[in-house]
Amino acid sequence: MTKSMEFIDRHITATTPTFSASVKSLGSPLSEWISISYLIARTYDAIEDCSSADWEIRYDALTSAKFLVWDKEKRKTWIPKLTAIIDNAGTSIHKGEIGLLKENEEFWTYVDTLPEKVIRIIEPHLNFLSDGMAEFARNEKKIGTAGFPTMGTLLNYCYSVAGVVGTLLTDLFVDSLFDETQNDNHSLLQAQSLAPSFGFAKQLCNILKNIGDDIKRGICFIPRDLLEREGITSHFLIENPEHNKSKLLVLKYISFIMPNVLQAIEYTKVFKNFESTNRDQLAFNIRRALAAQIILIIKTIKRAIENPHHAFYERKLQLQREDMNEIILTVIRVSNSSEETDIYLRSEYAHLEIMIIKANKSF
């Protein structure tokens, strides 16, 4: 591993070890491009998540983050803005994210190693991402613990912070894999239409893991109309985590995640069955990496169905390193053929559906 990739690998492992394990399987240079691009997004995400810093500070940093992938001069005035975020971080963001912010000046030197075509692909997505996160930072207190007004507004948020990451990854996959044939154009359109659902599934699942933590820090991502239909408030959830109403709320929320998981599974099918050996191997690597992330989502949802109240306790639903090792072994076992991967993911999804039905009947 080169010195530059040692730096990138250290930070991507510290900030998101589950994603790190998947992206490594893509092979060079795609894994490097995606790792660096993802860490830019993660930098913005850390700024947005740092709720202990005043919203104006975060809003300023995020709105002024546009065009940083091109504009080296702009970085000279932008990077000092991170000091206020770091100084006020407290426990609102974890140490891996703080470490990335502290070494951000050096990090951008690795961004400059990206080919121009990659920068042209990722810049619009990253600009959209920083704008979306800035808007959320501005409205965070207004939303507060009352919850997002509707599932629609929550999905809009999820697109601006995660769905767009799905489209960014897809555009890099497309550039590396597809050509201009008629068949590839069809696959390209399929990939681009399904990519946001992959991001939605990941973000909605991340919210599931942190419902209690988020409420305690002053923000509730559960839609307000769902809370009202169930006759409870966000404070009820963290004050009465073992209550049946709280557990049922989690199951209702999971039902909103499920269609996006199904679409994410369909998304993986785009990357298979290519005539060229080289393209087929790259498509295989992409599909394996995506499958690992979907299995991670499914495993998290399965835990939440088994113990819905764990959504209200710190890190109870967080997967550990041994969980990711198990997921990687599962992917290796089932990814010998596209058909076997399809069967496995669909059967796991069907099992989740059965679990939800049984869990709902038990209350």
TrEMBL record:
InterPro entries: Isoprenoid_synthase_dom_sf, Squ/phyt_synthse, Squalene/phytoene_synthase_CS, Trans_IPPS_euk-type. One of its GO terms (biological process) is farnesyl diphosphate metabolic process. Pfam families: SQS_PSY (PF00494). One of its GO terms (molecular function) is squalene synthase [NAD(P)H] activity. Keywords: Transferase. Coiled coil: none annotated. The keyword Cytoplasm does not apply. This is Squalene/phytoene synthase family protein. It comes from Dyadobacter frigoris. The lineage of its organism: Bacteria, Pseudomonadati, Bacteroidota, Cytophagia, Cytophagales.
